[in-house]
Amino acid sequence: MNNSRYIGVDLGTANTLVYVKNKGITVREPSVVVFEKSTSRMLAAGQEAKNMVGKTPDTLRALYPLRGGVIADFEFCAEMLCGFLRKSMNSLTVVRPKVMICVPYGITEVEKRAVMDSALEAGAGSVYTFEEPLCAALGAGLPVMSSRGSMIVDIGAGTTEIAVLSHGGIVTSASSKIAGNSLDNAISSYIKQEFNVLIGESLAEEIKKKIGSAHRSCDIGAMQVKGRNMRTGKAAEFTLYSAEVREAITETLLSLFEAIRSVLDSTPPELCADIYDSGMTICGGGALLRGIATFIGEKSRLPVRIAENPLDCVINGIGRLIQDHEMRQRVESIVLHSNI
Q1: If phi over 0 gives left and psi between -120 and 50 gives alpha, with beta otherwise, what is residue 185?
Q2: How many CB atoms lie under 10 A from the CB of residue 143?
């Protein structure tokens, strides 16, 4: 097969990335749309739509077509994906390329079909789905083709994918809804409870990125936060400290660790020694949270490292499969489904 006909897609809750052979990542856009309520006409997608979140008039609505790693609104997802793929396909000589998409581990056949139908609606000639943990591990450079066990923890916005891999496949895995958005929600809830102030989801995410930490050794000061006082309805401003953000998200992080521990507990004894020797690798947007490796390392008593370019591990894993025909053949057994 001509690899130039392949396009890889990381269709994520927060961001969508597209990879093209010999071009690398050609699209990196937020997975959000803005549409007109009266006509359901999409007006913006990607970064343009992201800039409008929380600022739209009553006649418009901002929507994330994916929730928890799966499609929540098929029509807008297909339309959004169509625009992203069109940007990448404009430079290709083929009209309907083969599209490889990553999906969360353990999604239903109905959810998987929705992902594939969206890509077909967007102009794909055929669609192949791969389990996200495998692509993340490949993109993180883990030796998943060897007999030694490797462990990946991919903390996205809507889901956290946890897996132990060996011999080119997933041995044990779990998908948790405790992820980046859960941390944002925890921050918003804490501020509402402790300061009686409402803030938007974008600000909660900004707080997490600027002063959030998972471990006390990584607390880094404070920032001024503006929101709306719940009692007076007026604008409110206060100082929020990094330690307070850590307090806000600790319970959520503990729930995340329980999901990690459940995978460790179900790992075959033959692979446990490998994991306890080599540890686990964290990728995804959640890997950027300060102190996350230290937090998980202390709880698990395992070596923990952050992958290089953690935001791009999944799409880079797809890229490896696109560029390496032999590797793609070797992992054909883990292809979930194909439409030819």
Answers
A1: alpha
A2: 15
Is residue 303 classed as helix, strand or coil in its secondary structure? coil
Cα–Cα distance measured from residue 123 to residue 136, given in angstroms and rounded to the nearest whole number:
25
- Side chain identity, residue 96: R
d(CA 280, CA 142): 10
Q: Distance between CA 210 and CA 203 in Å, rounded?
A: 10
Q: For residue 155, with 0-12 CB atoms within 10 Å meaning exposed, 13-18 middle and 19 or more buried, which class applies?
A: buried
CA distances from 299 to 212, 214, 294, 304, 311 (A): 19, 12, 9, 11, 24
| 93-107, 209-223, 258-272, 274-288: least confident range | 93-107
From the list 216, 151, 209, 223, the residue with the least C-alpha distance to 180 is 209
Do β-strands 150-155 and 160-166 pair in parallel, antiparallel, or remain unpaired?
Answer: antiparallel
Provide CB contacts within 8 A for 53, sequence distance 6+. Answer: 32, 62, 200, 201, 202
Query: Rounded to an integer, what distance in angstroms lies between the CA atom of residue 31 and that of residue 110?
Result: 21
Whether 16 contacts 29, CB under 8 Å: yes
Q: Check residue 339 and give its pLDDT.
A: 39
Q: Which two tokens stand for residue 162?
A: 């946890």
Helices (H), 107-237: 109-121, 132-139, 180-195, 201-211
Residues 245-303 pLDDT 10s? 999 999 999 999 999 999 999 999 999 999 999 999 999 999 999 999 999 999 999 99
Angle, CA of 225, 210 and 80, to the nearest 5°: 95
Contacts of residues 51-54 at CB distance under 8 Å and 24 or more positions apart, as own/partner, are 53/200, 53/201, 53/202, 54/200, 54/201, 54/202
Alpha-carbon distance 297 to 295, whole Å? 5
| pTM, to two decimals | 0.90
pLDDT at 106: 77
337: Cα within 13 Å, side-chain hemisphere: 13
